[in-house]
Amino acid sequence: MNRTYRLLLDCPDQVGIVTHAGEVITRNGGWISEAAHHSDEDSNWFFSRFEIQADSLPFGIEGLQEQFASLADRFQLNLKFTDSAVPKKVVIMASKGSHCLSDLLDRWKSGDLKCDIPCVISNHEDMRGLVEWYGIPFHHVPVNKDDKAPGFAETERLIEEYAADCIVLARYMQILPQALCERYRHKVINIHHSFLPSFIGARPYHQASRRGVKLIGATCHYVTEQLDEGPIIDQDVARVSHSDRVDDLVRLGKDVEKTVLARGLRAHLEDRILVHGNKTVVFS
Amino acid sequence: MNRTYRLLLDCPDQVGIVTHAGEVITRNGGWISEAAHHSDEDSNWFFSRFEIQADSLPFGIEGLQEQFASLADRFQLNLKFTDSAVPKKVVIMASKGSHCLSDLLDRWKSGDLKCDIPCVISNHEDMRGLVEWYGIPFHHVPVNKDDKAPGFAETERLIEEYAADCIVLARYMQILPQALCERYRHKVINIHHSFLPSFIGARPYHQASRRGVKLIGATCHYVTEQLDEGPIIDQDVARVSHSDRVDDLVRLGKDVEKTVLARGLRAHLEDRILVHGNKTVVFS
Amino acid sequence: MNRTYRLLLDCPDQVGIVTHAGEVITRNGGWISEAAHHSDEDSNWFFSRFEIQADSLPFGIEGLQEQFASLADRFQLNLKFTDSAVPKKVVIMASKGSHCLSDLLDRWKSGDLKCDIPCVISNHEDMRGLVEWYGIPFHHVPVNKDDKAPGFAETERLIEEYAADCIVLARYMQILPQALCERYRHKVINIHHSFLPSFIGARPYHQASRRGVKLIGATCHYVTEQLDEGPIIDQDVARVSHSDRVDDLVRLGKDVEKTVLARGLRAHLEDRILVHGNKTVVFS
Amino acid sequence: MNRTYRLLLDCPDQVGIVTHAGEVITRNGGWISEAAHHSDEDSNWFFSRFEIQADSLPFGIEGLQEQFASLADRFQLNLKFTDSAVPKKVVIMASKGSHCLSDLLDRWKSGDLKCDIPCVISNHEDMRGLVEWYGIPFHHVPVNKDDKAPGFAETERLIEEYAADCIVLARYMQILPQALCERYRHKVINIHHSFLPSFIGARPYHQASRRGVKLIGATCHYVTEQLDEGPIIDQDVARVSHSDRVDDLVRLGKDVEKTVLARGLRAHLEDRILVHGNKTVVFS
Where would I find the H helices in chain A? Predict the structure, then answer.
């Protein structure tokens, strides 16, 4: 895996964007190792992603950025440049449930999830030992249900202290304050334990059992002010039957949750996701 | 495939039901080729299905029924006996869309779907030729949107005339009158083009596209008075992406719809489904 | 769906191909509505597909081709230009089994599969009525197992007469002569009823049952001289259990076969497939 | 989850087995909470599984066993009785790869996998810390490639010392000696990183990449003397594309491997698997 610069771009759709963007890259000798484009006909919006070999360019990422300046003006481009050699700082927030957290930690340690995990924040002590075994600082920040403000203030302080690029709610089970969601817009990733928009809200597996569905699911999405309404990144399902009780749904759902969360986070870490309105473009 | 008698049974849960039922069968020499049982702990209800080789018994299906009389009293059994040699009469109702209808007809002709199809009823003429090629009577019964009563009266008359055991709404696109639903309770099978309870109501693929889901689905269910709320028989999903527009969702959804409808109908035809409240037990 | 020209391109990998190709298109005002690229690091080969709005160009497809001439020389490009307004002529070959044929015909009639079907060739009479109901000529060409040459000669004659662009073996059950395969290289699509490379050869469902697998599959591939060894286009599977006998596997497998064949054919018709060696690049 | 006794039974197929077995249970007041049966028509063999509420019986598991003695003689029953309150002792063998091991440990700690794990044996030191964090003894037993006998002797000694009921090869990467396999017949569970019988042998992901398959898979099976030929317990697949390189297949495959291994092990722990010849009956 060579070092690459990644360019995410979106703008009103019009002729020539791919070519002009490619031309900026190529005239400087840039080697494009991946490129993907999408025109959304409903919103008349264009989305593009380029991955460029870093060592094929005569300058660094700022140089690349400068080269794009006039094009950005002309086509009203929203641009985002990232460097595959700069791992994102991912703060994980967890509660008592271990399946998503333990899964993420194993993927991180084995190198399958390329990021830094500067700390784990939890409202319970349960997972301290495991997290610390991985060499990651663990912060127990209780959230008092009668007054959540102090807990969330401390949470926000830690997120800033660790300079988080991304926050993962690994079955954190608390609703984050609106201000925090807005501040980290499209940077807070949640795993919801249902196939959204089915079973919004509390205890989705109980709802699923009551309705008698034959598949259960999980949804990875960006957190917005509207609970369970944020842009969906990925979803998946598992088959269940009449013989599965609520606790079976919970157990079977865990496999879906952890897989979907890891897939969604990976797409985010590789800068494969563009958000437009309440929908995502995820370039595979 | 030998001829079998099928026994569906449900009752309040209690000790000994499987054994007593088995004993009635076995003391008459009955060879049980399949048996499945389920205790629902929430409702404290018991469900069972037996398949018995017909030629192992010294009497026919009525004889078997008589043998069960005293047990039925004692355990308050709901019993249903069917004979694999008596194919159910399935009236298919269709509209302009051909995918489910054409799929069912092919399965029927190839012998994979063991039933009689005495007629197809449609509110459009489009599929007459295909249906008639299969040697099945086709009835065009328009449903006038300003006065649906005459159309539904004719529909009901045909259903009775053909002595339908089961009615399949193969993307029929009309809501049946409540009286008809009640009369054919748990005998009218619908395919809804969403993963219920997501996207209840009209134009689910449009709703799905707007919400930006990453999987679309279909749900086969018994029709009840509550639209889209009936007991779910089977569901499945297909993966979609940002590049799929509404017409792509419609197209991809067709594959799911026809597969799920055929699976659900097959379970019904083989008497594998018991309904309790708003949920199904489907013995595989 | 506007009319588009599609450009498939592959060549030894090197800097600037995407940009140069894009530049040829854009300098002529061409509006790229889809573009996808792939670099294969093992073979150091590059693959690309562009879809261009026809009415954005000042010339037709030959004009576009001419514009690419010098670039083709310089980069040793393999180029293929197609016009979405020119439907491919797909000759379907079938045998007694109806599921794939009937599925393709329904997709074709409903407009989901954009192609012409100039004729169906079968070594059995069984499906004549259905095919003719769809208004498609049906040719019964028996293949005598003691001397297959006359049957295949007639087959080849028909394929030429109808100027087939593509031949689909919809469970045709006969091995085509090597000369025909070579002549229509990467234009003959077969559906094999196993998850290749498992269960190569005859009666794969019997092999699967004997081995006790828990999933069965189907594989859509281009036909080459090596039976069951051609480049794979698409595959899928279905879950089975100990209770499924060989005839159940056959039945469950049909759903997979017809879905995978339709998906593979669709990718071919939309010019989404590039073959390199024995592998395919399928741009979604 | 109440305490239950589980009865696994298989025998030549004949009339009345289910009933007679049920009668033995019921005449002693036994409450059957689950029952499943299967007749294999090819081998004319019958399989059955009962789960009986322990506190509904006036005696313990030995008492139940005695009650079955005469029936066992009469019908040549193979019988196996287990007690849900006696967790199986599962020795896990691992190598450097952590994904299956870490997944199993998390499932075990959260209570989703009901068993004891008396120790983990590995030919590498890498996972010692994690295993010990879970409070489980870790034994590093190197297997020297020039003389494997001492390593395997020590392995066998440990397995005996810990009185293992079951051995899980969690990507152990070594072929166990034949004598050990025979001694723990149908008690050694392996996860093979391909969709068997595809890609038997070494480096299946490399084989899969070379063949250009569009799905990769994993297979959980009992280990027998014939490598990769043992009875299959469970399998699953994941979709891949031309853009996935071998290291992507390896990464995507890990999710399938760990899920399938956990599912297979769970079925084993709940005594849901009967082996006949080279095939399994897995009662869900």
Answer: 17-26, 61-67, 69-75, 99-109, 128-133, 149-161, 178-183, 204-211, 246-269
